[in-house]
Design a protein that fits this description.
Distance between the termini: 50 Å
Radius of gyration: 22 Å
Structural class: mainly beta
Low-confidence stretches: 1-31, 179-194
Mean pLDDT: 80
Number of helices: 2
CATH class of the largest domain: Mainly Beta
Helix content: 10-25%
Order of helices and strands: HHEEEEEEEEEEE
CATH superfamily of the largest domain: C2 domain
């Protein structure tokens, strides 16, 4: 066996071990992960929803107490696609892989389809879906089709979840200069026993 073959085999073995560590979240446990400020762009592209009558709807993005609404769009029995093409943005601190800048932990958020107030039932929830905001690509959109599920409140607007989707893109941008290693226990102020 040649020495170059052995060196290549060792290199690939170490690369696979590194990939395995990051994909399993071991880098975060070992303190190698960085807390980094990431700007997350959420691009709400369009909604597919079949309705029985003319219906004005909005999509609400929410995380905790933060929320933002799209403009109202009209669906009808002959039009089951509402194009929003609207973007929301949030800055957040995430534990990221120092090499790829991809998040190591989930950051759950929610999209809710509601009736517009012009329908006489403002904020009436039709359907909702949770998604992971940390499922971004760096510098480009990760486009996803998210299946919408009926909200508990919805008794008047039946739909088939398997035919109902929100299409959105999630993009992450690393903010330069805002990066720090996870603090060790000593840096947090706990006493070290000798």
């Amino acid at each position: 066996m040649s020495s170059s073959y052995s060196a290549n085999k060792l290199y690939y073995k170490k690369s696979l071990e590194t990939i395995s560590q990051y994909s399993c979240g071991e880098s975060a446990k070992s303190g190698k992960a960085n807390k980094t400020e990431i700007t997350i762009d959420i691009h709400v592209k369009f909604l597919r929803l079949k309705v029985a009558e003319k219906t004005a709807i909005r999509i609400v993005w929410s995380r905790g107490k933060k929320a933002a609404k799209t403009q109202a769009k009209i669906l009808s029995p002959t039009v089951d696609k509402a194009t929003f093409d609207e973007k929301f943005q949030i800055n957040t601190m995430l534990e990221v892989d120092p090499t790829t800048q991809l998040a190591l932990k989930e950051k759950t958020s929610k999209l809710t389809v509601i009736l517009d107030k012009s329908m006489g039932k403002g904020n009436y929830e039709i359907g909702e879906v949770e998604f992971n905001m940390a499922d971004y690509l760096v510098g480009e959109y990760n486009v996803r089709a998210l299946q919408l599920y009926k909200s508990e409140m919805n008794e008047d607007y039946p739909f088939e979840p398997q035919d109902t989707f929100i299409f959105l893109g999630i993009k992450g941008t690393v903010q330069p200069g805002v990066m720090k290693k996870n603090p060790s226990k000593n840096e947090l102020g706990s006493s070290k026993k000798s």
